[in-house]
Amino acid sequence: MKTKNILLSGSLAMLVWTSCHTKTKQTAALPPTPVNVATAKTAEAVYYDQYQGTVVALNYVELRSEVSGFITGIFFKEGDVVQKGKELYEIDRRKYEAAYQQAEANLQSANANLVKAQKDIDRYTMLLKNDAVARQTVDQAQAAYETSKADVAVAKAGVLSAKTDLSYSIISAPFTGRIGISQVKLGAQISPGTTLLNTLSSEHPIGADVVINEQDISRFYALKKSSSDSTFKLTLSDGTTYNKPGQVLAIDRGVASGTGTIKVRIQFPNEDDVLKDGMSCVLNVLNSASGNRVQIPYKAITEQMGEFFVFVSQDTIAKQHKVKIGPRIGGDVVILSGVEAGDKVVTEGFQRLKDGGKITLGIPAQQTPGQPAGKTAK
After folding, report:
1. What is the pLDDT of residue 27?
2. Taking the model in full, what pTM does it have?
3. Are the beta carbons of 121 and 133 closer than 8 angstroms?
């Protein structure tokens, strides 16, 4: 029995040795993997951080009437730019004109009574000096004069009120801007403060609102004090870039407690009326880390479990390096760490490589692989 166990152990050992020896011979027999490489270079890298935003008019108003009546005049073309002070709507003015004329007449009557009361005081005062009138009469005249003065003040207030109502019957543009489509037509009856007539918004300059995390507040305060023409750029919803420079106009008063965010408004010139109130956009903010950065071809990057790697050629061996990547610039990508300038990174053929695998430079044309099948960097 003991002899049998020895024989089995010997056979098993021989089998293991044979297998390992076979694998070693096979590994040694594997030829180097042909690859193409590119040299990591240092080049100017200008890149931007992106924030979702909305274009907003810096001045915006809903036009509503402060008096009731019927629309008797519309004096603009819908969608046009109207100048500040231009008359836009007229509400039936007849009753307001009549009320104003009546208030003026009441004021004239009050002034006449005041003049009479003043004359009565003057006359009774002279008679009192000659003991020709009772003191009570003079006092009554004085009281009548004070009442007349109060009546004049009331009449003046009535004139001002009637004049104000009359002015409200004409609705004018409070600022220069583009007017929208009218919500009422001629002859429509409107109620004060409730009926929306139209909207008016300014166009030049215009703003873009973005929401940032509270960690970025100090950055935007610094940009408010000092920024260049290239600091802010807008990308519109159709993919085009709005290249006119922007500047920080306002940072909201406080951070939203639920989200830890704050609103920032960037102002842009808009002489050509390219930007419209309500448009969606992407605000590109120049990253302070822009400058000379290491760059490699983007196709050299592979992603594994959310991490990024490249193969670096070291003579006849390829070593895998974990890298931290920045933004893409054309066909290249910025490398923040993991690769140094001058390193030779494998750009083609790395699909068959393992860390420490042997390589040979140059892939025959008929064997050149296409774009890596694995996931690529975002």
Report:
1. 46
2. 0.61
3. no
